[in-house]
Every structure is written in structure tokens, then in C-alpha cells.
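Q: I'm writing up a methods section and want to include an example of the input and output format. Could you take the sequence below and give the corresponding predicted C-alpha cells, formatted cleanly so I can copy it straight into the document?
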Amino acid sequence: GNSVAAAIGIPFLYRDFRAGWKDGVEESKRLGMYRQRYCGCIYSEKESHFRAG
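A: Here is the clean output for your methods example:
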């Protein structure tokens, strides 16, 4: 991000929007909720099936 912003002359502001993600994962596991192994897009779904064998 920084190198692209510098190349085109704009400021780059990094924000991690995943704050609390790990807590959510742990809580959903504690509650026995279903969690899929991919984000939901077709590319990650395909990748998850190839990893599974």
C-alpha cells in the first residue's frame, strides 16, 4: 500500500479491520457454531477443496 500511494502521490492510511476476529472465532467454537473453512468466494472454496484432498 505504501509504495503504491507514494508512486501516485497520495497518502496511505493502514487500518486493520479484523480487530476482534480471533475473539469471534473462539466464541463461535465455544458455542459449537458451524464455521466454514473458506471466506465464501468461489476461489477460496475451490482452494479449500484442493487442500482437503
